[in-house]
Known about the structure:
Helix content: over 70%
Radius of gyration: 22 Å
Shape: flat
Amino acid sequence: MDMNAQYDSAFVERGPWIAVVYDVFHLVKLYNDTVLTAMRRRKQRELEESGDRQGYQLYKGSRYIVIADRKTLRKKDQLAQKNNGRLNSLDMVPS
């Protein structure tokens, strides 16, 4: 079941004998949105307060990297490298 509070309360009210099971997608999403985001933002604040602007920017733009699957990141990197190689091989000088 979706983790919507209204769904949960409706099941508890109308069918208390029903065991509610939440789907894995919503559990992982909740974890990512609360725990990982809180940890990443805390580290961002620490870096900003210490004056490490470069570190701050790294964490600021890293949400996807933190929550993404390693296989997905590798595939995206390989595709980007292939595309960059193709772009570098093109003659980009105007005639």
